[in-house]
Amino acid sequence: MPLPTARGEVSGALLDALVREPGGVTLPGGWSLRAADPYGDDAQLALYVCYELHYQGFSGVDDAWEWDPDLLRARQVLERRFLDALRSEATAHDDPQAAVAGLLVEPADGAGVSHHLRDEGELWQMREYIAHRSLYQLKEADPHVWVVPRLRGRAKAAMAAVEYDEFGAGRGERVHAELFAELMTDLALDPTYNHYLNATSARMLAVVNMMSLLGLHRALRGALVGHFATVEITSSPASDRLAKALRRLGAGEAAVFFYTEHVEADAVHEQVVRHGVIDGLLTREPALAADVAFGVDATVLLEDRFAEEVLGAWRKGRSALRVPL
């Protein structure tokens, strides 16, 4: 895909640099990096672009930028500010069991995005939600693969088993990212990888960036496990609500299938992650318990903020995207 449109001084300087040859190019630094809001559009877009160099990259950008030392130093400043903000604002538990326990009970009066879409959402709102989620879903499970070499024994085996399912269990047409692309096509959305990057809010960028941040750093392996557990535990009931929403809105079978597939699969994955990955990791490395809990708390914080933004916009009758569909 082409490079996105800048959202401020930091992302602008980064995007200007990436169209040139690596080495000797002025990158954002100093005051501008430290002054950028760690949750804001400018910093989050800059982080997303840096991370995307480890995934599919951008057309016209030299692959050598992926490991350019100056770019990695600039990224490190943004990462530290983002991580510090998350640790300060998200941390609510130091015990993984207590953190996970809050995810296992479905509130009777749930008011999240999937509840809204199931009960009263309109088709244009569903399409916007899918456009937002496409930034992750079109590379579903890719950020989590990086943790596999950092795990051992039971935790590694359990994590690999879940990832095997995410990647289609050996069948290319069942890769979850491919199924999501079919869902998008069914809803008359463009399934091109990162097509909606310019339209997506900073709050969704933060959700996806946190996955890459935790996955790319071995020191954060415990937090990545906590994050992944949160995704798997909350996915099955939310997927059930979204499947019902899509049926109510008259979507085709390809759209409905993506979520019905996740209802059953993620109910199984929840057990594997809790008892295989988390327990397996903490048996070998009990000192990572607080990091696992942090991964849960940080995921909940960012997802709640994204939901608040989206529902707030919809209640006012306006688009939740920066660029309406």
From TrEMBL:
<dbReference type="Pfam" id="PF14518">
    <property type="entry name" value="Haem_oxygenas_2"/>
</dbReference>
<protein>
    <recommendedName>
        <fullName>Iron-containing redox enzyme family protein</fullName>
    </recommendedName>
</protein>
<dbReference type="InterPro" id="IPR016084">
    <property type="entry name" value="Haem_Oase-like_multi-hlx"/>
</dbReference>
